[in-house]
Hints:
This protein is of the alpha/beta class. The protein is 27% helix and 21% strand. The chain folds into two domains: 8-121, Tetrapyrrole methylase, N-terminal domain (Cobalt-precorrin-4 Transmethylase, domain 1, 3-Layer(aba) Sandwich); 124-246, Tetrapyrrole methylase, C-terminal domain (Methyltransferase, Cobalt-precorrin-4 Transmethylase, Domain 2, 2-Layer Sandwich). It contains ten helices and ten strands. S-adenosylmethionine binds next to helix 5 and strand 10.
Amino acid sequence: MRSSSGGRVYLVGAGPGDPELLTLRAVRLLQQADVLVYDNLVSPGVLDFAPANAERIYAGKRRNEHTMRQEQINALLVKLAREGKRVVRLKGGDPFIFGRGGEEMQELAAKGIDFEVVPGVTAACGVASYSGIPLTHRDHAQVALFVTGHLKDGSKVELDWPALVRPSQTVVIYMGLNALPEICRQLIAHGAPASRPIAVVQHGTMASQQVLTGTLADMPHKVAAAKLSSPSLLIVGDVVTLQETLDWFRPTGAAGQDTAALPLDILTSLQP
Ligand SMILES: C[S@@+](CC[C@H](N)C(=O)[O-])C[C@H]1O[C@@H](n2cnc3c(N)ncnc32)[C@H](O)[C@@H]1O
């Protein structure tokens, strides 16, 4: 699919936060971008890879605060590509996981705009790694499920609860912080033991990462007391018990370093 203007849209996964988790392809494209269109979950450090004179357009997408409506974003991408620009459309994590990347690309395909999709480290993988929770483990979980806990009509979470309470699996819930009490209540009501382990990870992979572990019974109180905020990810399953031993990430201090501050000479030497 080629657009006659020569413009192209690159839908790029920006990863969960730490800019060091960008792919080489993402960095290369950022370095060559004319314009960036980015969502609110994209770290500022990611934007720094683009040339200073590249235009930066914030498309928003915070909960309850959509700076630009989806149709406006779609129309903007089409317009910029038709102007012949190299457009990098940045989305947090992976663009095809709870990111509406598919919808944006459908619109480009319908308009005959040339595009490419670059995967990113999705929050489930990045956050699990940085908090020391393997999503699968031979002794604990043979299945990992990614679901969204987004409240439908602001009040109800509609999920396949019987499928989520099975043993020997890990359930990762995106956008589930606000519905946490309802999620824990439903899982217990559908047969999960109240003692099933759960972790809530705020700002995973970032210097401000905070990991709370507990059970389905006590996590709503723990989260309320800790006043966790978005973005946060819920991880449910026995693998959470490994966190205490595998917790390795020290954003600051002797045992680790703020990886966002590592030198980037290897990246600057990349060939286009
Ligand atoms: C709209 S979804 C976008 C997911 C993204 N496309 C991905 O692949 O990670 C946003 C949700 O992802 C989760 N999330 C994204 N980044 C996160 C982070 N750094 N720490 C914890 N949760 C994160 C949160 O549950 C947040 O509400």
